Amino acid sequence: MIKRENLVKIGQFKKPHGVKGEITFTFTDDSFENNERPFFIGEIDGIFVPFRVEDYRFTSDTAGMVRLKNLDSDSKVRFLSNKEIYFPKEQLVARTSEDSHTWDYFIGFTVIDEHSGKIGTITDVEESTLNALFIIETATGEILIPAAGEMITGVDEEKKELHVALPEGLLELS
Prior knowledge:
This protein has 174 residues and is mainly β. It folds into two domains: 4-89, RimM (Elongation Factor Tu (Ef-tu), domain 3, Beta Barrel), CATH 2.40.30; 103-166, PRC-barrel domain (SH3 type barrels, Roll), CATH 2.30.30.240. 5% of the residues lie in helices and 47% in strands. The chain has two helices and twelve strands. It has helices spanning 74-77, 170-173; strands at residues 7-17, 22-27, 39-44, 47-58, 63-68, 84-88, 110-113, 117-126, 133-138, 141-146, 152-156, 161-164. A six-stranded antiparallel beta sheet has the order 3-4-5-2-1-6. A six-stranded mixed beta sheet has the order 10-9-8-7-12-11, with no helix packed on it. A hairpin with a 3-residue loop joins strand 7 (110-113) and strand 8 (117-126). The radius of gyration is 17 Å and the shape is elongated.
């Protein structure tokens, strides 16, 4: 039996692509690429289930498309939409630099602006535009702010806080 404590979340399945069972996915760690026969693990009804990766291709540095063994149509793979992707801890390649994180790494972090204070929590990253955007759930709704390294003033990984210095007036535009 696969146990949660032996796994690391590395991404999320998004939606089926085409009719032959491909599904888009985002990832925060691409260590699975270094495995000869990688498999992704999804949580289905509280049970961790491995899915053998037949083929994949990257569409950006944080997204790709994957075809899983025995899931050969869009209807067969649809149940994985928006499910988290896990990978065995012992098979992950150790990272040597914090620069290796992707924007998805910050999902779940609280955003704190040096002028406005706590803004909200990052719920997703929009990467369909030229510039990535953090989707932030605030007390009054959802806002978008640029995911830009030059705005980040600090990261507290223990507290899951992302400290930023947003340009004046940016929050009023939201």
